[in-house]
Amino acid sequence: MRFLCCAHREELSKKPSQAINIWQDGFDTGKIFFEQKQWYDALPQLGCAFETAEIILTSRAVEACHASEIFTHSSILLARVFAELGHIDQSFEVLLLAIERIEQELSYQPHTKASLNTSLQTIYDALDSPHFTKSNSAPVSIQADRRARLAVH
C-alpha cells in the first residue's frame, strides 16, 4: 500500500521539518473529509499522512513520544476510512503495520517504552472498537498474539 510516490518519500526523508508540515496538512484535510463522511476524498489525504507520519517517526524529527502519537492517530484514522469503504482487510493491514512499526521503535528507543506502549495500547483498543469488529474476518489470533507481545514490553 503506497500513497506517496518515491520522489516525495525521498524528499520528505531528507527534509524532516517539511515532513511535519506535509503531515499536518494531509491529516487535517483528511480529517475534515472524514468528518463529512467523504471517504474517497479522505483516503489519499490520510494515506499520505500515514506514510509521512512513519517518516517522522523514523527520522526523529520530533520527540519520540510525539512521533508515535502522530503515527498512531494517523494509522487509526486511515484504517477507519478503509473500514468505512468496506475494505476490512486493508483496515487491519494498516493497524497491524502500525503495531509492527511501533514494536520496532521499542528496540531502537527503549527509553521511550512508556509512550510507545501507550501507542500500542491505543491501536489495540481501536482493533477492539465496533469500527473494526463489524466483520467476522477480524484476525483474532493476531490480536491475541500482539497483546501477548505487548505484555512482554
How would you summarize this macromolecular structure in one to three sentences?
The protein is mostly helical and 153 residues long.
CATH architecture name: Alpha Horseshoe
What form results from the Cα inertia axes? globular
Task: Provide the residue-averaged pLDDT.
Answer: 86
- Fraction of residues in helices? over 70%
Could you give the distance between the termini?
28 Å
According to CATH, what is the topology? Serine Threonine Protein Phosphatase 5, Tetratricopeptide repeat
Strand composition percent:
under 5%
Number of spatially distinct domains: 1
Strand count, sense and barrel status of the largest sheet are:
none
Number of helices: 7
List low-confidence stretches.
Answer: 135-141
The run of helices and strands is HHHHHHH
Number of strands: 0
From the alpha-carbon coordinates, what is the Rg to the nearest angstrom? 15 Å
Helix and strand content put the structural class at: mainly alpha
| CATH class identity | Mainly Alpha
Summarize this structure as a short list of keywords or feature phrases.
globular; mainly alpha; 153 residues; Serine Threonine Protein Phosphatase 5, Tetratricopeptide repeat
Walk me through what this model shows.
About 5% of the residues have low confidence. Helices cover 79% and strands 0% of the residues. It has a single domain, classed as Serine Threonine Protein Phosphatase 5, Tetratricopeptide repeat (Alpha Horseshoe). It is an all-alpha fold. The chain contains 7 helices and no strands. α2 runs antiparallel to α3, α4 packs parallel to α6 and α6 packs antiparallel against α7.
